[in-house]
Design a protein that fits this description.
Blueprint lengths: L13 H23 L6 H14 L1 H9 L3 H9 L6 H21 L4 H21 L3 H7 L4
Helix pairs in contact: 1-2, 2-3, 2-4, 3-4, 5-6
């Protein structure tokens, strides 16, 4: 387990904490849906959920961080480690496949095709070039 400082800074009011708590559960729901729906991201929703729970319920923040598959990825994100090279490859490939399918299905609507192409290009660019690669970060920190 990576030692990561918690984002704990509880929202000041009961209403604020309830709002963060609700948003956290919406993010958990979307992240859970992303496990079974191809093309829908999973980890980012759990990152959002952990952040929301840090403001509302430390118990559920610990729960998200302790999830077997997702918890280590959220902890790695918080530690600034980025994504493993394999995950970046799979994410980019999934975006290309499903974005390409969406473009084919909307081929008769040029505005939709252009919008999908732009969103696809931004997504692939961001994941491949802007998100740090975990192996590189660990190597630079002398941890590998």
């Amino acid at each position: 387990m990576i030692d990561v400082p918690s984002e704990q800074h509880l929202a000041g009011t009961r209403v604020g904490r309830a709002l963060w708590f609700g948003i956290g559960w919406v993010a958990v729901g979307l992240g859970s849906l992303g496990i079974v729906v191809p093309g829908l991201p999973t980890t980012i929703f759990f990152i959002v959920a952990a952040s929301c729970f840090a403001r509302s319920s430390p118990r559920f923040e610990r729960w998200v961080l302790g999830l077997p598959k997702v918890g280590p990825m959220v902890q790695g994100y918080r530690a600034g480690l980025g994504m493993p090279r394999r995950a970046k490859f799979l994410a980019s490939g999934t975006m290309l496949v499903f974005g390409g399918m969406a473009m084919v299905l909307t081929w008769g609507a040029p505005v939709a095709v252009a919008a999908i192409a732009v969103a696809l290009a931004i997504g692939v660019w961001y994941v491949t070039l802007r998100v740090p690669t975990r192996e590189r970060v660990l190597r630079e920190r002398g941890l590998v």
